[in-house]
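I am writing to request your help with a piece of structural work I have in hand. Thank you for your consideration; the sequence and its tokens are set out here:
=====
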Amino acid sequence: GGMMKKDKNTVLPTLLSLIAIGLSIFTLVNNIEVNNKINAIEVERLLDKAKDFLGDDIGVQSLFIGEETDGNNIELAYRLIRDALVINPKSCRANRLLGIQYHKKNKYAEARFAYNNALKIHPDEAELWSLRGFSYYKESNYDSAITEYKKALSIDSTWLSALDGMAYVYISQEKWQDALRYCRSAVISRGSDPVLHWQLAKVLLKLGKNKEAIGEARKTLSLMPELIDARRILVSALQADGQEDEANRQLTQVGE
């Protein structure tokens, strides 16, 4: 009988202890969740400010245009990105932006290191492979650039920055037939981009495909009439096709 009495006396305190422990764990987990949410908001706030200083958060295409960023702004962006990485070293966006700011300083090996950290978090993000490819392209390391771009295209065969990147690699190597294939794919991927049509027109002209080059140059100018280089290609293609009168008419619009 004594054993039963002892059990009754200990059940309630034990139950209360378990409830207290449960509440403590719930509070702890809840606090961690709240802190994580606050930290996530702070990371995004820091990175949004960094993006404003860099003028860039979209990746390869804007880097390729090569918009100049003020050195002081790059440094301010760098500090904000580092602050974000202190809070969350595994932020994919922070590591990608870190790579972009290194890229803007022409520090391509450091940029790749940052992209690698982002890829550990998101190995299936095609743009990160494209960014790596572009860093190799900037170093004229074309074989490595091709390897990286092909990784991007294995993830998404229509990924524009990888298609465009491959085209530029082959243009740099004067491998016009290979360049043509990727220029065509890039135009299919985003037909509204005048620069892609202009690039395709240049490659077609190099290959002596004059009528097609004329068509692409005209398409470029319909999308961006102020692009003088496209009109120059149009003039060259018209001349090569024997259309001297039309070439001369276009020349008057170039102002040369």
User: Anything to note?
Assistant: The mean pLDDT is 86. The longest helix spans residues 2-54. The CA atoms of residues 158 and 189 lie 6 Å apart. The chain is about 80% helix and 0% strand.
